[in-house]
């Protein structure tokens, strides 16, 4: 994972210091068998950016932390202090000033250059810059960074600050470090250290940019077009003894057939250049329009007049910043209404129905998250028809690469500040560190049009109210000052173009009102965890929130990921490695409890894996379709979670090896722009009625800009395909609208619930309702005719069903781990066919027969015992 430095051109020069590093243990419980290697002065080769775990793994000093129970074997790593060391040559180049810049140090460290202490750091979430002009030597220079044990440091600081409640077995809330590094209910406990983002030496003369903030927006012109607005905020700093003459900044915006330039003088080395750009191409979320991006170049020049910029202009300026942006407006509508308090993201004056997913760091060891890997993950989010990713507060402020890719795809982003599931001290030095990191990252992420919401914390306001914190805190601060004061103040000062919320869930008012419960479904955003933890997934239909920001259901990773990570023999749901890779409290019990109402618990491991994968996908699809059916009262769904950081049983749609689980395709179906869904309703179409099937509604959801008109066909069918009753209705659903229809009772009254279903079809979209649970139904062994045909990039598996086949799914990773299928969970009525397109890695050859074996070509039918 990388971030782009703000300065990239002469006369400021940049030298990356990424080579020649070594790392060694300098304190802590290194195993006796490794001491000669890891405590020697020579150390082992280290990668920068990197982490100590990946360095030790590359050196063969530790096994892969992700396999079996190696997590337990490697806990000593986080209890050690580590020293990173390198040397670099330097010669005077005439520059006034030389800065040592670190974009990420994890976490509590001492930096020394040529034996002299340069600085001490204690925040993973911010960038650092140190003046080393007087410390550099001509010739060889030695740079050493000693990083304290993250486990011992968290313990010590927890004592110093005073106990604050949290949800882990480490006091992660005592340090400004990614909380998930200490383990989570889906994460490995492998507390990291390292230089996790780039390190460089920057040499400059006269002045450089201390910061550049680019704040884009749009306003509607009188003729209905959009005029772009761009505020470029610049702070500069001058070298001691440098030229104290005037400084100017030149801003150039190009792209999509337009070029605009403006120049402004800096006063007291700060200033704002404002541009008004007529009739710009507007950036839209995916599904609402295109995502035009414009290049922005900001140049710092010295000179006496804005017009010529002095001699530095011809040479490229003193410093230069380059980035991309898009023009759009955003606001959060939280107005009270008859149903409570709304929570609607509005982009370019248009409400957006959020089809979202929560995002966690994509690896325990963050430098392994390359742009290529992020591209793959963002492409998977698009497969799932996701239009928003919420960057969860137990991780990090995401990288520029992540935001660039979201900008390009029109995937909206919601960035939590890194506070999650804990009370946080508001005392020094934590307060100043939080302010420094917030200022750094709000400015860094300001150009990105995809970023539409800043959120102060994850579940902390809710936790304070309901998790017993008040008594345990005994009057100590817990973070409210951050969420109600510091963070909104920093956002208002440095951004001011995006909405801010203090926490998620949130009842919709700031300051937070004591009379509103922070997780009230009628007010603002909601998290739903009673379902899964204590209730079965049909209960998702019991509540209509204004916005669902977290909910989800667990399932295992794909079979190839699972069997790569766990080598148990025999492999069972409760075998030792499976238990290590299940982090949720009583997780397997909850998996079982959530399955047996729908299917009998399989005794075979292969069937267990498929059953739990199916149940996860079905649970979430039921939830999302329910939430969408209540638009516009409900305005969003953000499932927990898109991705994983290691191979584990979890709520993710993409497992820790980057493979799509059936859930990803369930999300694609539930997020379809045009959705036909069958939902239980009261006879008047009013409040939700849980799983009461006496009254069924067909709900048509049209999330496009065109009206949707056609003939709705509703049929009650027997499992053999015979039509019991049917009706045809001409319907029209307005653009971005929802229509609820109550078919007559004859159509929806099931005479043989175990052997009937309701099918609603409109213009190629289909909704289904099965009145009986699968375990109580007459589903039969699937009778399939299959063909495997050559296709570009792979093969096509054509499947024709002779009988009703529910949720046909090709688990192609069992045949070729890196193969990808374009759809899963397809229900076929008798006589229907589907083509499943399989993309194969270059050069891969598969046995066509292997793709259609019963353990690869799965269906729900296989999990139902014949009557």
UniProtKB/TrEMBL annotation:
EC category: hydrolase
EC number(s) on file: 3.2.1.25
Gene3D superfamilies on file: Galactose-binding domain-like, Glycosidases, Immunoglobulins
GO terms, molecular function: beta-mannosidase activity
GO process annotations (BP): carbohydrate metabolic process; glycoprotein catabolic process
Pfam families in alphabetical order: Glyco_hydro_2_N2
Catalytic activity field: Hydrolysis of terminal, non-reducing beta-D-mannose residues in beta-D-mannosides
Superkingdom of the organism of origin: Bacteria
Residue ranges of every copy of the Beta-mannosidase-like galactose-binding domain listed in the record: 43-197
UniProt keywords, alphabetically: Glycosidase, Hydrolase
Name of this chain's protein: beta-mannosidase
Natural source organism: Isoptericola jiangsuensis
């Amino acid at each position: 994972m990388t971030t782009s430095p703000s300065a990239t051109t002469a006369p400021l020069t940049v030298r990356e210091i990424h080579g020649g590093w070594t790392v060694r243990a300098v304190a802590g419980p290194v195993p006796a068998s490794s001491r000669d290697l890891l405590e020697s002065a020579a150390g082992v080769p280290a990668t920068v950016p990197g982490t100590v775990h990946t360095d030790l793994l590359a050196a063969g000093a530790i096994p892969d932390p992700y396999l079996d129970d190696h997590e337990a074997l490697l806990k000593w790593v986080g209890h050690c202090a580590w020293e990173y060391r390198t040397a670099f040559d330097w010669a005077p180049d005439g520059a006034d000033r030389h800065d040592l810049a670190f974009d990420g140090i994890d976490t509590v460290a001492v930096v020394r250059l040529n034996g002299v202490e340069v600085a001490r750091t204690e925040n993973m979430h911010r960038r650092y810059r140190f003046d080393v002009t007087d410390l550099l030597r001509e010739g060889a220079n030695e740079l050493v960074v000693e990083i304290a044990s993250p486990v011992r440091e968290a313990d010590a600081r927890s004592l110093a600050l005073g106990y604050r409640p949290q949800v882990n077995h480490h006091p992660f809330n005592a340090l400004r470090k990614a909380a998930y590094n200490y383990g989570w209910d889906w994460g490995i406990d492998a507390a990291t250290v390292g230089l996790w983002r780039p390190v460089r030496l920057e040499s400059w003369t006269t002045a450089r940019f201390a910061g550049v903030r680019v704040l884009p927006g749009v306003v509607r012109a009188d003729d209905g077009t959009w005029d772009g607005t761009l505020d470029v905020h610049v702070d500069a700093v001058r070298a001691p003894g440098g030229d104290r003459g005037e400084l100017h900044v030149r801003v150039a915006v190009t792209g999509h057939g337009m070029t605009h330039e403006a120049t402004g003088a800096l006063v007291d080395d700060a200033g704002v250049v404002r541009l008004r750009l007529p009739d710009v191409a507007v950036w839209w979320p995916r599904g609402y329009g295109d995502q035009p991006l414009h290049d922005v170049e900001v140049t710092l020049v010295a000179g006496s007049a804005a017009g010529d910029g002095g001699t530095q202009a011809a040479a490229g300026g003193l410093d230069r910043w380059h980035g991309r942006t898009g023009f759009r407006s955003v606001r959060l509508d939280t107005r009270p209404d008859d149903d409570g308090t709304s929570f609607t993201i509005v982009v370019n004056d248009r409400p957006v129905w959020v089809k979202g997913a929560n995002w966690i760091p994509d690896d325990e060891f963050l430098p392994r998250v390359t742009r290529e890997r992020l591209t793959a993950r963002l492409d998977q989010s698009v497969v799932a028809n996701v239009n928003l990713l919420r960057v969860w507060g137990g991780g990090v402020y995401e990288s520029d690469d992540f935001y660039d890719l979201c900008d390009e795809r029109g995937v909206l982003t919601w960035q939590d500040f890194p506070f999650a599931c804990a009370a946080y001290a508001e005392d020094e030095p934590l307060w100043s560190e939080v302010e420094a990191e917030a200022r750094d990252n709000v400015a860094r992420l300001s150009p990105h049009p995809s970023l539409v919401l800043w959120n102060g914390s994850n579940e902390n306001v809710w936790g304070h109210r309901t998790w017993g914190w008040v008594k345990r805190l005994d009057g100590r601060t817990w973070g409210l000052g951050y969420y109600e004061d510091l963070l909104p103040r920093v956002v208002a000062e440095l951004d001011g173009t995006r909405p801010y919320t203090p926490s998620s869930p949130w009842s919709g008012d700031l300051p937070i009102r004591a009379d509103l419960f922070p997780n009230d479904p009628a007010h603002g955003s909601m998290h739903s965890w009673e379902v899964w933890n204590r209730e079965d997934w049909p209960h998702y239909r019991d509540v209509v929130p204004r916005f669902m920001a977290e909910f989800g259901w667990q399932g295992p990773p794909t079979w190839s990921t699972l069997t790569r990570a766990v080598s148990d023999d025999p492999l069972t749901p409760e075998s030792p490695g499976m238990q290590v890779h299940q982090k949720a409290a009583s997780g397997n019990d909850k998996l079982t409890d959530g399955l047996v109402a729908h299917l009998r618990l399989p005794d075979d491991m292969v069937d267990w894996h498929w059953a739990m994968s199916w149940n996860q996908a079905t649970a979430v699809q039921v939830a999302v379709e329910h939430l969408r059916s209540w638009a516009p009262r409900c305005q969003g769904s953000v499932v927990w979670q898109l991705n994983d950081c290691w191979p584990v049983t979890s709520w993710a749609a993409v497992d820790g090896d980057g493979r799509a689980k059936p859930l990803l395709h369930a999300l694609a179906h539930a997020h379809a722009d045009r959705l036909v869904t069958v939902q239980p309703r009261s006879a008047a179409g009013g409040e939700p009625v849980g799983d009461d099937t006496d009254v069924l509604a067909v709900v048509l959801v049209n999330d496009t800009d065109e009206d949707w008109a056609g003939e709705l066909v509703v049929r009650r069918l027997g499992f053999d395909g015979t039509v019991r009753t049917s009706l045809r209705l001409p319907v029209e659903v307005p653009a971005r609208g929802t229509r609820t229809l109550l078919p007559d009772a004859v159509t929806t009254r099931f005479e043989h619930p175990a052997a009937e279903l309701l099918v609603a079809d409109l213009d190629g979209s289909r909704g289904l309702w099965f009145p009986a649970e699968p375990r109580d139904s007459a589903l039969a062994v699937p009778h399939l005719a299959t063909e495997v045909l050559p296709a570009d990039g792979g093969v096509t598996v054509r499947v024709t069903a002779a009988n009703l086949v529910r949720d046909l799914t090709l688990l192609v990773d069992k045949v070729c781990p890196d193969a990808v299928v374009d759809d899963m969970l397809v229900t076929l009525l008798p006589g229907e066919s589907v083509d499943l397109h399989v993309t194969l890695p270059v050069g891969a050859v598969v046995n066509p027969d292997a793709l259609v074996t019963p353990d690869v070509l799965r269906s729900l039918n296989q999990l139902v015992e014949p009557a």
